[in-house]
Amino acid sequence: MKVVIISYCGASEAYVARKIIEQYPSTVIIQPVRSQKAPEVHISSLTGATRLLRNWLGKMGERRHRDRLINRLYPGGTQPSIPNIVPFPESDMNSRPGVELIDSLQPDVLMSCGAPMLSAELIGIPKLAAINIHYGIPPHYRGNNTLFWPMLKRDFKNLGACIHHLTKGVDTGNLLAVIRPALQPKDGLLSVEFKITHLLPGVLLEFLALIEQSHAVPGIPQTGAGRNYKKKERTIWKRIEYHSKRTFGLLRIPNRPAEVIKYFGDIRQSQGELGHEDPGSTQEKIVI
Q1: Fewer CB within 10 Å: N-end or C-end of the chain?
Q2: Residue 276 above 50 pLDDT?
Q3: Does 275 score more than 70 pLDDT?
Q4: ∠122-124-130 over CA atoms, to 5°?
Q5: Quick one: which H or E segment has residue 276?
């Protein structure tokens, strides 16, 4: 089976992609590359200087988070190179060059994992399915920073990740699996992402093996209004609020085991727990 993954290849996404390649060696990774042209910032004004400082602090924070995550994911703290990776201009991803590239690869499954939104034309190319790996549980947490927000709000039931079918909307497709990591009071964003990243490949490989045989895994529709979080909403003040609550023990993270709910497979029917009740769907719940 031919799998094509579109991903910026952050530390977590690269780890998941490597696990897929181990099982499906013909997998190709398309890495969207952003333009190197820096936006103009006028530091002569207070607003410009504040924006410059905010951007710098954000990049430093992201780099530190990535380096610490790599140290946890890989022995020795060195991230191996990813085979079968094809850098591609992000600006061309949804235009004719991007469509022609994906079409030429003839994917059975197109997988988005930390990537830009894809057009309906791209989503329609794969023979079997177009899916997304989302570090967040929709409909409650769609969009960006969707581990940060449930942590800040102490909404631990909806702290996790999912696999869902790709649609034109932001994280709105039918759910295929929901992954909730084990939690302990000492956990923070780094350890939660690390735990999710270790759980995801096994669920993904089981889904890929199933769809290779059955060619039809509809999942279950999302219900409820939900919320799409924008990247700009995670302001420096929200970050300070999060770290302050962590420092003073105000988040009160509970102990819980890991839980994986799979909405696919030939298994006993049961009732959903995410507000996605569908008596015609199949569900398997595993508590680890």
Answers
A1: C
A2: no
A3: no
A4: 85
A5: none
